[in-house]
C-alpha cells in the first residue's frame, strides 16, 4: 500500500515520553525551566487587557501553569496530547477563549496539525500562548556526543531531538490560520559541574532521548567519558563549570476576528513611495 504523503513523520516515541516523565516525577522532577515559563506566561497574559472565560492547558506536565494562571481564566481545562497523532485533541470547535501550553509542543510529531486543531478550537479573537523548547537547545551536548562518537564509534547516532527555530514556528502559525502571529526566544544558560550532572537533570525533566531512530544499545562507558571530556574542553567557563543552552521559543497568535488590525492590501496606500521621496528632497 502506498504511504500517505500528508502523514507527518513519526520522530518521537510518545509512549516512551510518558514513561520517562513518570520516572522523572518519582525521582523528583527538575522544574526550573517549567517554573520560569509558568511565571513568564502569567506576566505575558497580564499584559493582555481582556477576560478569558474558558481556557485549555494543552500538554503541560504538572500543575505549575494552572497555579500560575489562577484567576486569569474562568475555567482552565487540561487537555492531553494524544500518543497517536491520528487522534484529535479533545476540543470542540470554537469552544475556548484561550489556549496555553508549556514545554510540550516540542515533542509533537505533527505540530502543524496540532496548531491547526488549536486554531479551530479557539473562538474568534481567542488567543494561543505557548512556550516550547527549540533553537540551539543543548547544542553543546549535541556537539560533544557527535565528536566522541565520531572518534570512538566510527559514526554518529541521533541523541538530541531536532528543534524548530523561530522562523519555522512563525511560518507554522501562519499556515495554521492564526492572525497577528508573534514569536520570540528566551535563552537560558544553565551551568553544571560536569556533563553527567546535566544528563541527570535531563532525566529529572523527563527529557532524555525519545527519538524513534535512537540507538537501542547502551552507550559505551568510554564514549560517555570522552563526551564529558570534550564538553569540558569546549564549553567550560574559567571556573571549570560547563554551560548548557536552553532556548525557549514563545509563540502567540489569535483566531481571526473583524476587530483586529488588518494588513494593508497591496496598492491601498494613500501616498506613493515616489511622492514621499520627492517631498523629502524638497525639504532637504
Précis, in short:
The protein is an alpha/beta fold and 284 residues long. It has helices at residues 14-27, 32-46, 64-68, 111-121, 139-152, 166-175, 195-204, 221-235, 273-283; strands at residues 52-58, 73-79, 96-102, 122-134, 179-192, 242-254.
Describe the protein in words:
The protein has 284 residues and is of the alpha/beta class. The chain is built from nine helices and six strands. It has a domain at 14-135 and 162-191 and 245-283: Rossmann fold, CATH 3.40.50. A six-stranded mixed β-sheet has the order 2-1-3-4-6-5, with helices on both faces. Helix 4 links the parallel strand 3 and strand 4. Helix 5 (139-152) crosses helix 8 (221-235). It is elongated and about 60 Å long.
List the helices and strands and how they pair.
Elements: H1 14-27, H2 32-46, E1 52-58, H3 64-68, E2 73-79, E3 96-102, H4 111-121, E4 122-134, H5 139-152, H6 166-175, E5 179-192, H7 195-204, H8 221-235, E6 242-254, H9 273-283
Parallel strand pairs: 1-2, 1-3, 3-4
Antiparallel strand pairs: 4-6, 5-6
Helix pairs in contact: 5-8
Please tag this protein with its features:
six-stranded mixed beta sheet, disordered N terminus, 37% helix, Rossmann fold, single chain, elongated, disordered C terminus, 9 helices, alpha/beta, 284 residues
- Biggest sheet details: 6 strands, mixed
Main sheet strand line-up: 2-1-3-4-6-5
- The sequence of SSEs as H and E is HHEHEEHEHHEHHEH
Number of helices: 9
Going by CATH, the homologous superfamily of the domain at 14-135 and 162-191 and 245-283 would be Vaccinia Virus protein VP39
Give the DSSP E fraction (strand runs of 2 or more residues): 15-25%
**Rg, please?**
22 Å
Low-confidence segments, given as residue ranges, are 1-5, 266-284
How widely separated are the two ends? 71 Å
Provide the CATH architecture of the domain at 14-135 and 162-191 and 245-283.
3-Layer(aba) Sandwich
CATH topology of the domain at 14-135 and 162-191 and 245-283: Rossmann fold
Q: Which bin fits the share of residues in helices?
A: 25-40%
CATH class of the domain at 14-135 and 162-191 and 245-283: Alpha Beta
Mean pLDDT value: 85
Amino acid at each position: 500500500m502506498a504511504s500517505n504523503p500528508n502523514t507527518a513523520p513519526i520522530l518521537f516515541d510518545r509512549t516512551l515520553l510518558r514513561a520517562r516523565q513518570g520516572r522523572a516525577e518519582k525521582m523528583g522532577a527538575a522544574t526550573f525551566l517549567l517554573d520560569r515559563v509558568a511565571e513568564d506566561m502569567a506576566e505575558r497574559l497580564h499584559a493582555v487587557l481582556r477576560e478569558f472565560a474558558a481556557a485549555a492547558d494543552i500538554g503541560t506536565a504538572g500543575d505549575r501553569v494552572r497555579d500560575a494562571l489562577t484567576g486569569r481564566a474562568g475555567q482552565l481545562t487540561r487537555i492531553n496530547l494524544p500518543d497517536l497523532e491520528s487522534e484529535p485533541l479533545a476540543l470542540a470547535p470554537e469552544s475556548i477563549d484561550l489556549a496555553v501550553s508549556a514545554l510540550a509542543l516540542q515533542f509533537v510529531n505533527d505540530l502543524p496539525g496540532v496548531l491547526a486543531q488549536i486554531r479551530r478550537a479557539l473562538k474568534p479573537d481567542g488567543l494561543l500562548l505557548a512556550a516550547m523548547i527549540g533553537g540551539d537547545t543543548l547544542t553543546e551536548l549535541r556537539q560533544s556526543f557527535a565528536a566522541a562518537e565520531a572518534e570512538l564509534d566510527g559514526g554518529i547516532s541521533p541523541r538530541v531531538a531536532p528543534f524548530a527555530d523561530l522562523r519555522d514556528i512563525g511560518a507554522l502559525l501562519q499556515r495554521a490560520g492564526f492572525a497577528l502571529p508573534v514569536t520570540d526566544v528566551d535563552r537560558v544558560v544553565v551551568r553544571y559541574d560536569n556533563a553527567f550532572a546535566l544528563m541527570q537533570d535531563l532525566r529529572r525533566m523527563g527529557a532524555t532521548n525519545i527519538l524513534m531512530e535512537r540507538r537501542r544499545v547502551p552507550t559505551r562507558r568510554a564514549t560517555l567519558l570522552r563526551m564529558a571530556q570534550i564538553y569540558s574542553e569546549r564549553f567550560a567557563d574559567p571556573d571549570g563549570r560547563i554551560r548548557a543552552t536552553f532556548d525557549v521559543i514563545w509563540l502567540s497568535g489569535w483566531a481571526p476576528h473583524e476587530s483586529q488590525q488588518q494588513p494593508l492590501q497591496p496598492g491601498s496606500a494613500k501616498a506613493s513611495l515616489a511622492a514621499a521621496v520627492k517631498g523629502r528632497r524638497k525639504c532637504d
